[in-house]
Task: structure prediction
Amino acid sequence: MSFILWVAIRGRLSTRDRIHKYDPMAVTTSVLCNTYPKSHAHLFFECLFSRTIWTQLMNICGSPWNGLCWNAFIDWASTHWRGNSPATVANKLCLGVAVYHIWRERNCAIFEGTQKTSLVVAHSIIDTIR
Ligand SMILES: [Zn+2]
Result:
């Protein structure tokens, strides 16, 4: 999971916008919501599917969704989530697990043609964190 997070933070996952640079015939719309072109920013925070997951996670954690975009959130987290306090470790764990599950769900939708609901994915994330 931490490898996927590291690659996502570096903006190097093979999202459809990146694939489109090499294959102009590639589909560019989000497989999770079938709307906007998929990028790291869209996949993890802007996609309606992902936003629903984050909202559910934040409700469970008792924190409101702050509505930051992907790059702003990563900048904010790298500044505020320093050290190894229990709260910081929990936040980092939640981010890593959520990114991993959203990326996995994207892959299942593309390669297997299956898609869980955002509620099911949110509960899978919570189960993994536990
Ligand atoms: Zn989407």
In short: Residues 2-129 form one domain. The chain has a mean pLDDT of 83. The pocket of zinc ion is lined by residues 30, 32-33, 35, 42, 47, 49 (CB under 6 Å). The two ends are 15 Å apart (CA to CA).
